């Protein structure tokens, strides 16, 4: 069920900040799939994603921050799009990001500015 709110990014931000990390990874995995979450987290095995989702392990703070940003962006898109569209959006070339996929931009990010740029691209996608 898709819920439409005036500013889905505000609700997404609240959820990204408040959710325990394991619950956040579980929801992100449902939206994006374990392979894409593993890619965003910089790991090869989806088993590590399962460990994060079950609370057995925690990745580095950098990875946690990246996955929280990814969750916030995915939740913003989820206000209007189905999981398959969100997955395709994260993986596809994005003209707002110089034709780099949002997933790659987030994974290779060295600053919070990239997450802001990816969020701006998500808002532009929703507005189109």
Kindly describe this structure.
- With 128 residues, the chain is mainly α.
- The protein has one domain.
- The chain has eight helices and no strands.
- It has helices at 8-18, 21-32, 34-41, 46-53, 61-78, 83-91, 102-107, 112-127.
- Helix 1 runs antiparallel to helix 5 (61-78) and helix 3 crosses helix 4 (46-53).
- The chain is globular and about 40 Å long.
Number of strands: 0
List segments where confidence is low: pLDDT < 50 over at least 5 consecutive residues: 1-5
| Total separate domains | 1
Q: Main sheet?
A: none
The run of helices and strands is HHHHHHHH
| DSSP helical segment count | 8
Give the integer mean of the pLDDT values: 90
Distance between the termini: 21 Å
**What helical percentage do the residues reach?**
55-70%
Q: What is the SS-derived class?
A: mainly alpha
Classify the beta-strand content into a percent band.
under 5%
Label the overall shape: globular
Radius of gyration: 13 Å
Identify the notable features of this structure and list them briefly.
globular; 128 residues; single chain; 0% strand; disordered N terminus
Topology of this structure?
Elements: H1 8-18, H2 21-32, H3 34-41, H4 46-53, H5 61-78, H6 83-91, H7 102-107, H8 112-127
Quick overview of this protein structure:
The chain is an all-alpha fold and 128 residues long. The chain contains 8 helices and no strands.
């Amino acid at each position: 069920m898709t819920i439409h709110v005036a500013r889905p990014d505000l609700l997404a931000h609240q959820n990204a900040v408040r959710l325990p990390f394991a619950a956040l990874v579980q929801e992100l995995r449902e939206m994006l799939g374990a392979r894409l979450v593993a890619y965003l987290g910089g790991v090869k095995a989806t088993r590590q994603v399962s460990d994060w989702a079950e609370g057995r392990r925690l990745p580095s703070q950098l990875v946690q921050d990246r996955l929280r940003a990814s969750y916030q962006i995915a939740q913003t898109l989820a206000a209007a799009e189905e999981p398959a569209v969100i997955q395709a959006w994260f993986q596809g070339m994005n003209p707002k990001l110089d034709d780099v996929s949002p997933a790659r931009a987030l994974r290779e990010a060295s600053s919070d500015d990239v997450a802001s740029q990816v969020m701006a691209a998500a808002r532009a996608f929703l507005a189109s």
